Amino acid sequence: MGFTYEGICHSKEREIEMNMRKLWSGRFEKPLQEKVQKFTASSSFDKKLYKEDIKGSCAHVKMLSKCNIITRLEAAHIIRGLKEIEYEIEEGLFDPEAYEDIHSAIEIRLTEKIGPLGGKLHTARSRNDQVALDEHLYLKKEIQEIIELITLLQQALKAKGEEHEDTVMPGYTHMQRAQPITLKNHLMAYYYKLERDRERFQDCYKRTDVMPLGAGALAGSSFPIDKEFTASLLGFEKVYENTLDAVSDRDYILEFMSASSILMVHLSGLCEELILWSTKEFDFIELDDSHTTGSSIMPQKKNPDVAELIRGKTGRVFGALMAMLTVVKALPLAYNRDLQEDKEQLFDVVDTVKGTLDVLPDVISMMKVKTRNMKKATEKGFLDATELADELAKKGIPFRKAHEIVGRMVCYCIKQNKELKDLTKDEINYFLDKRIG
Ligand code: ARG
Known about the structure:
Elements: E1 3-5, E2 8-9, H1 12-19, H2 34-40, H3 43-46, H4 50-66, H5 72-90, H6 102-114, H7 127-163, E3 168-173, E4 176-182, H8 183-208, E5 210-211, H9 227-234, E6 238-239, H10 243-248, H11 251-277, E7 285-286, H12 305-328, H13 342-366, E8 368-369, H14 371-377, H15 385-394, H16 399-416, H17 425-436
Parallel strand pairs: 5-6
Antiparallel strand pairs: 1-2, 3-4, 7-8
The structure holds arginine.
């Protein structure tokens, strides 16, 4: 196929040759079996981290030069090479998938471009602290985006609530009509649940905002590095105190997945209600055509697929949390290759949560509320029973007794097929006198 960009050859032979290249072949007499190579490689998914990897490497190189471990000129060459590689990956001119992982891909490509000087990039660094750094950088950015998306959903809920300050509907406990509430009150319950979700992500951000670079493989570095300097270049609030902890810690990922799982609990609950409310049985809302789909056989169908999918996708977020807890459970210190299994789960949770938060605000703001049906539903089912008991209690009847009186009234009404408000004065007095008697 020849060359497409500055000497990058895309021929098959070249790809196979590159495939064989590793960062660690010196100690080995045999190459990896091809299937083992495939089994152990992570580039197919960790290539997602190329921007973070390059950002981290540039800061690392600046620190090496500041600490006189490499010269300023060397640093400048390396950084220029890294920036070019970033461009190549962005434009699809260089594919990191042919390598063991994104870190190897970039370093090998750098050496190809700038010669043996590329080999100085990895001074005072291991892939163990490097991969942890990439993940911290990635998740910091994603958490911030998720927090913004949560805020947008809260705004949609609040705006819809404000439109329906006076829309009365049944409130439920045990899925039985309980007491009348307003739609605003109902929607704002989710607003406040999301407020706690936001706080959980903000809190988890603090533990993500800690820099692991400089921990080396596990025991730090014999070079006179300046971790605080690298941290300030990368915008980290803190540096890990302990190097073994730095390379093995995945707590921030567990916390992120827990916060995501709780968020999905809330969103799946909200979606469950949207699904129920849009049934003919409830008939409280109509979801917008642009958020529903039809059936290939039943012409009348209008299905709430978006809400159903959010409810369904909750499962994969919980699953990722379970998978991740299991991956880190009982791992000895410090880095173990098991930890490579964190990335696909993490990326999936991020994509699922962001995708969900992206579609949901419009579903809320564009749904049509059938206010009359909501109001009508409050008229049957004795939703005023508690209030009546409260009224009696306010007149001096002990609440427990008032509860019993109204309970008898309800029982009578059911038999008479009427509502509490239909009771005549005589009927009411009968129940009250019965108490006195
Ligand atoms: N791909 C590896 C991971 O994701 C990078 C670190 C590899 N370290 C090692 N010692 N093999 O965890």
